User: Fold these one by one.
Assistant:
Number 1:
Amino acid sequence: MPRTFRTWTPDSIPDQSGRLAVVTGANSGIGQVTAEALARRGAHVVLACRSAQRGQDALDRLLARVPGAHAEVRPLDLGDLASVRAFADGWDHDRLDLLVNNAGVAMVPFARTADGFESQFGINHLGTFALTGLMLPHLLASPDPRVVTVSSEGQRFARFDLDNLNAERRYGAMFVYLQSKRANLYFAAELQRRADAAGLRLRSMAVAPGLTRTNVLTGGANGNRGRLYGALTRLLLRIAFRPTPEGAKTSLYAATVPDLPGGAYVVPDGPLQLRGEPVLRGGRERAVRDTATARRLWELSETLTGVRFRLSDDAECPTQKSS
């Protein structure tokens, strides 16, 4: 039976001094709460944000709330593989201890990324896949590297179609979003399997935040869907969704609990994983056990992004193929 951590709160986070963390999408929502909580406990946090201005605004808020915090902002657009590579190429710290793959989009109108991928699959999965692979040498330079990838409780309802990942045949915003979140879980589990096979100390975790009030349904591409959509969505968020700090608990738990095993999948313990306290669900989740699909998705992701993971301690850089 999975264990429920009913007494755990962000105040339980152990001292993070000396730890170097990247949080993607840290300018708002769960990413902002995660970055601030890590900085409050002493970590040096890099806010990786698509918008330079929103990233700077988030950094200013963090420093105002946590005086003396060690934090910085760097540009990163997961919808543009050139931006992902520039972020990795510009890394000038001696290592990376924690990568929190938090950024994403949800149920947006159909669009393509800079590289021609359907936006939800391209940003939520392929951008995350490429970033992790390109940052892998810096993670392996850490004595205790950890990768946390934010999936969704909704991934359990995805109809995963490897032949339509890029919306080649049809597009349904909800269908494609849930599929991209299932891909996040496949990726996190497969990364752990490959790290274990290589004998590495890397720990890869996935989390589901539960229903959480963020701007993912109202900001970005969803901000242009009209006043009625905006009003109804904000009403739904206020009535049915829980506050953002509650949704950040699973990310923070996966990122900081010392003895958490690699391959863990942390979800809320309530009905349908919609709310509640962190609980481990890994062995009970179908996607975690589906190694064949995860392997095929990994191979496809390597082909689409041009990034191959070199899972060895002496990896100087991931192999990059021409797209």
Number 2:
Amino acid sequence: MNNNLNFFSDYLIATLRLAVPLAFAALGGLYSERSGVLNIALEGMLLTGAFTSAAATFYTGNPWLGILASLIAGGLIGLLHAVLCVTLRVDQLVSGLAINLVAAGLTSFLARLVFSGSSTQQLPGIGAIMIPGLGNIPLIGPLLFQSDFLVYLLFILVILTTYLLFKTSFGLTLRAVGESPKAADTAGISVAFVRYIAVVISGCLASLGGAYLTLVQVRFFAEGMSAGKGFIAIAALIFGRWHPIGSTLACLLFGATEALQLRIQALGANIPYQFLVMLPYAIALLALVGKLGKSTPPKALGTPYFGENHHSD
């Protein structure tokens, strides 16, 4: 009985750890897409955050500076996406894909320079912080109260984002810009400014997911280590109906699936490992195809806004 409980506890902890980078990326995507800017660049933002946090930690020996570096880099990638989509009105899908391709190539190139061809350089990571008393509760304690700083930060951000989005004037403004930018503009709101802020926040949050990968999960950087997590985060965002809590729960579902395939592999089941590796992505597709009810995106999502002084030719 005790062994079963330990196995279940370990499985839940693995689920949470695997869901954290997805949840940071999904939260980032939420801000951007609620403002009307499609963000396919989450994959590139995750990868950039992973590399910059690893490189800064490698040079300074301080993982907190690594987190700061990832925030700055993610914000800059978000700024680039905003300039392309909001100011230059480049197709938002094309901009996102371009950022993903550049991030994949550039991080691979720079990683070989920084780590001298050795991607297995062990980094000083961020340790767990046990909350006295609560950390000793069976099952729940190890899961929720013996985690690291970034997990606690994620919990706070999910609650904060839900409050900001639905209970504050900032959230109302953000949603108005994503639903009807013309009406928001008429009401005196700067659509471009709101979208810039939202996409920069998006980059910062997604990059924290990358920092979690390198500083908590594996403690080294490997080329292409985001491995499609940005796209699963987009699936979670759609499945969660662009709601902070719904999207986070969807990330936990995908994390549980990935933890399951790792457990099955470890048990040595006679199943080709390629099928097991494919499982989280298959579940993401099934979730999108068979989602309950209709998931309605913000009405202006993916559509550039031409203000009164601009004309679409």
Number 3:
Amino acid sequence: MAVRHDVEPRALAVRTLLQLPRVAKFNGQINRRLVETELRRSAEGLRIDQRAIRELIPTDKFALRDLRFVELEAPVAEAIFSRLHYLRNARSGSLNYALVDPIHGLPVTMCSVSPLEWKRVARQVETQFGVPQANVWDVSRVYSFDVAPPNAISSLLAKVRTAIRQLDAQVDLLSTAVDPNLGFHGSSYRAANWQLWMSIQARPYLYVDRVYASPRQLLQRFETANLAELAARHGAVVEQSRARLLDSLIFCCRVRRETEQVAPDDQRRLRR
């Protein structure tokens, strides 16, 4: 199937991968026609979102050395994350950082950082590695435009680590969750000297009216993440993926010293 080249290919790929578990069978197989349908739907949605923030999308390519590191204003970060990130929302209260182009100041690669709210991960980090839960922050959103040069994300992560170290807040560790079901494998984190410390059991993807929604988004929108209640009270078409999903990978980076490697046998698999 041909898709017009007016959408960012990487963003389209991730959006489509997020939707495919909704139509996959228990064994993971998907009919080609359904794949093409989801690809078209994702492309059309992405076009709409790109048009909505056209003025924030960079089009010029620059070498990595020419990009500037900045703390990004919240309205700009929120506009991009809520439109182009595959989760289509920003984490409120975050610090946002970016590498911006030297001409227009448009973000080329960006991320948001905030105190870790995932209690299951925070408890394991404290128990196994001795880092207090309050001292762990989370890289909760990352987005890189297709014009970004190679190694842009790993370069941004290295600069963010330095910026966080200089804050008055006591932050000893950065963490993030990488979802291999969406084609992510943590390469940029490894390049920035982050280490794989643990994994966490995948839970089914949830969809409301054929659109992916995280439990956090359901709570924000409907004040409940109970699927039966959503269907009964709001008349929504609620679905969840059936095929087995791969575990999320938890990468970590110590802020004030070198991050130790964790042997595979010592990497805990956390359950939901």
